[in-house]
Amino acid sequence: MRRVEPMTGESLGRVIEEIPLVDHHVHGVLAGEVSRRQFEELITESDRPVPAWMTQFDSQVGFAILRHCAPVLGLDPHPDPETYLARRVELGTEEVNRRLLAASGIGHFLVETGYRGDEILGPDQMAAVTGKPAGEIVRLEAIAERVAAEGTDAAGFAARFEAVLWERSRTARGLKTIVAYRHGLDFDPGPPTAAEVTEAAGRWLRASDRSGPARLDDPVLLRHLIWTGIERGLPLQFHIGYGDPDIDLRRSDPLLLRGLIELAEPRHVPLLLLHCYPFHRHAGYLAQVYPHVYFDVGLGVSYTGARSVAVVAESLELAPFAKILFSSDAWGPAELHHLGALLWRRAMTGVLSGFVAEGEWSEDQAVRVATMIGERNARRVYGLGEDA
């Protein structure tokens, strides 16, 4: 019997390293230079200043940057933060972006453009930097806020939103909602009536008139956005779980979406649960029992660093492997784009090689599953084709 070394997986690791990953939910890299303070604030989901008595480098993601990104920038692994940041300044943001994105091995980017887009590169710019295709994911709430800013009345809001959404998403690959941030996932799952939408739009627009653009957090309008998105027919992404303090984590459990999932099922629109930590097991259950539900553990991988192997392993417990995708959800520093890919590859190699070494899986099965999750599932869901 051929002897397989446990947990090394050299041949499997080489195959996984070469997968041209489809990052099905990502944001652009930084367009300009940042200070040390700004950089540290960009490698945490906290929206508070980093206390003067600590450094954000003393975290799983910080240690992962010093271990895995430093060599890409020409340093030995594990430099001190000062050395790392000095090298970053020496190279400049453009070169840092080029090196780290190239080293990630990502073969296709689906870029969500609804958050602080003026500070980061858009899809076309990401494609130019990497030489890889980049499609767009359109954020529903950003479209609604644009409609309000351009001017509409309450009675005309629904029709205007639908028209702008269809035009804005004409070449997009998917849509996204941040209802988990704006309200929580514990909302009435059914579509609101036209009268309810008009009344809610009136409240929101009046609030905007008084104090400038108002935050869109009305549950009626958020439901309307979601159902309009479902009717649009593109894959619809939901932020789930871990995020900045703007989210109430207790109300971002994907199990709260069960009513919506069941009502939307006859439309056959793919619903994609993003990141999901610490609810990734719940997301795996939903992906198992509902044919149109998919999930990833994107954001949870980069921020758990050396522990990301456990997160990826848990994501493989229940869901069919055709229902799991790869994403990084990286925004800003290209270190997060690189780590999202590198840590996922490392985790998949470790977990799957263990299955092979224990005789539970064949190596062919391991290669096929890694390729499905890393690339092929996203190509099928988003209609990317083999070379799109």
Automatic annotation (TrEMBL):
The organism's place on the tree of life at top rank: Bacteria
Domain Amidohydrolase-related: 194-384
InterPro entries, A to Z: Amidohydro-rel, Metal_Hydrolase
PANTHER family hit by this protein: AMIDOHYDROLASE 2 FAMILY PROTEIN (PTHR43383:SF2), NODULIN 6 (PTHR43383)
Record SUPFAM superfamilies: Metallo-dependent hydrolases (SSF51556)
Pfam families for the chain: Amidohydro_2
Identification of the protein by name: Amidohydrolase-related domain-containing protein
MF GO annotations: hydrolase activity
Organism of this sequence: Streptosporangium subroseum
